[in-house]
Write a structure and sequence with these properties.
Elements: E1 2-5, E2 8-11, E3 14-18, H1 33-48, E4 53-59, E5 70-82, E6 101-112, H2 121-132, E7 143-149, H3 152-160, E8 164-165, E9 175-181
Parallel strand pairs: 6-7
Antiparallel strand pairs: 1-2, 2-3, 3-4, 4-5, 5-6, 7-9, 8-9
The structure holds coenzyme A.
Coenzyme A binds at residues 30-32, 35, 110-112, 117-123, 148-149, 151, 153-154, 156-157.
């Protein structure tokens, strides 16, 4: 069962909640040096500058709340997608004349601790994110977006969670822009 307490989501023995100052220094290692560097060295600065907000996922037991190691990290930023960049999908957005930009939240960074990969933790982070941004919202938010590494394993990981390519123009680039329509997530 999924429950929400203020900024924390509890689900099946896991908690997702904002990373706090007390959790540093982070020993997090996802096997990707750019992402490790961001989470170990840059995350607080980006947060102070209000560019990202980062949440951590850890095994949750009421008696030892917050003490188990972090298994996943996810950072969010506000985003928007111009309707004209969304031509392949615009029929899904009925109010397009009134909303030339579709409000979105971007998954700016996502990583799972190396020894916990391939266990469904990354998919769980995506599913919790979908619930997070359709409940108790302070603003309208229709899409989740992300810039995925253009690597077949990473792309298929996101596609299995219902993410689609916004367009085909970036198919040979290092990263591909993907989106998930939150209207598909039942409230
Ligand atoms: C990509 C990642 C977030 C997936 O998390 P996860 O908990 O392993 O994901 P799940 O168990 O839900 O799904 C596993 C699938 O993710 C993909 N995947 C898993 N590990 C991966 C890795 N190291 N590199 C690329 N793709 C990976 C594969 O498609 C995998 O399917 P498989 O188990 O059949 O091979 C995680 O592997 C990771 O942090 N990788 C390093 C950082 C990264 O590439 N982040 C994404 C940036 S766009």
């Amino acid at each position: 069962m999924l429950t929400q307490q203020r900024n924390r989501i509890l689900y099946e023995g896991f908690a997702l909640e904002p990373l706090t100052e007390q959790q540093f220094p982070l020993t997090f290692d996802c096997g990707d040096s750019d992402l490790n560097d961001f989470f170990r060295n840059d995350v607080r600065d980006h947060e102070r500058q209000l560019f990202t907000k980062t949440y951590c996922l850890y095994g949750y037991d009421a008696e030892m709340a917050g003490k188990s190691p972090i298994v996943g990290l996810i950072s969010y930023s506000n985003d928007s997608v111009r309707i004209k960049d969304f031509r392949d999908h615009e029929e899904e957005i009925p109010e397009k004349k009134r909303y030339p930009n579709i409000p979105a939240v971007k998954i700016a960074r996502l990583a799972v601790q190396q020894d916990f990969q391939h266990l469904g933790i990354g998919s769980l982070l995506l599913n919790l994110t979908k619930v997070f941004f359709v409940t108790n919202n302070r603003t309208g938010c229709r899409l989740l977006t992300l810039d995925a590494y253009n690597d077949s394993r990473v792309l298929s990981f996101y596609m299995r969670s219902g993410f689609q390519f916004i367009h085909d123009k970036d198919r040979h680039k290092r990263n591909r822009i993907m989106f998930y329509d939150l209207n598909r997530t039942p409230v």
